[in-house]
Amino acid sequence: LKDKSLGLLLQSEALKIEKKYDQLNEIYEEMLKTPDMNLLGLRGLMQQNIRAQDYHHAFVYGEKLFHLNPRIDKIYETLVNIIGKTNNWQKLIYFSEQSFKYKIIDKKTYEESKSIAFFEIAKIKHKTFEQESINLMEKALKLKENFAPFVNFYIQLLINENKLEKAKKILKKTWSTSPHSELKQQIFLLAKALKISYFQLVEYISSRT
Length: 209
Description:
mainly alpha; elongated
């Protein structure tokens, strides 16, 4: 068994150098049938599919790798990159929770990843499930408070749902701690929705600053 494993490893390295990717896939598939080479086979197939830009299959192999050993070097970062290509944001929440649980990532990375996942899911759902999108954005903002792109989208959702006073308070709170030029467009839209002048709303929002 050891001789077979060593032979597969040597063949895979040689084929990588020669860039014979079809044959390399066959070697990785063979590794999957060999217990002590299973992880190498999965990792190899994941990387091969990333190289081919087949992110769906890359994710399948990456997820199997994570379940077998979440501590594999850079598996979390690789899965995050794949998720960015496949928009499988629910899985980002799961992998982040598991990685934080096993102390693979720190709290800052955990909160950053989850907040991005909530934001991306909210963007997908907002056309059909506006209130659910609002709830998701509130979760995102708890993890990444006053982040301008999040606040912008959240205010847009509140205006759409006619929650204008709430939008007004959120803008004032955000501007008082983290003023940002990206918020100006939402201030203009909210003033229009409130049927007041832009400058009147600006005066209210920026009174402390």
